[in-house]
Amino acid sequence: MKFFNWILNRKTIAxxxxxxxxxxxxxxxxxxxxxxxKLMNMDSKERFSVFANVIGEENAKWVNxxxxxxxxxxxxxEGMINWAKKTDMKTEFxxxxxxxxxxxxxxxxxxxxxxxxxxxxxxxxxxxVTEEEAKTIRV
Length: 139
Hints:
Elements: H1 5-8, E1 16-18, E2 21-22, H2 25-32, H3 36-40, H4 44-55, H5 57-86, H6 91-102, H7 110-124, H8 131-138
Helix pairs in contact: 4-5, 5-6
């Protein structure tokens, strides 16, 4: 998993992973052994709990935040944008969908991503309403 490359490629026994957070060699080795697929399918609280059990709460806060921001969120956005670009739909719906995806500010939980994709799917089928259409309706 690319996210844990900084652990795999560490040059020191206690790699400094930012903001005063430092992992021991044992902690880094334990993180490498985690099931990355399971981590991706957990919500933030579940993932934090797993990290906390392995590296303690202090380090888990930072590792979980970094995991969500730099790996999970990025992959979610890229995957959804790729889907939007490859799916056959009207241009205005594609623009609206890409805009909604681009405006996301954090990684979505498995439940949130299912709900978000359902809304995007409706829009791609022409069932939903674009933001511009919603503004017209409100006026």
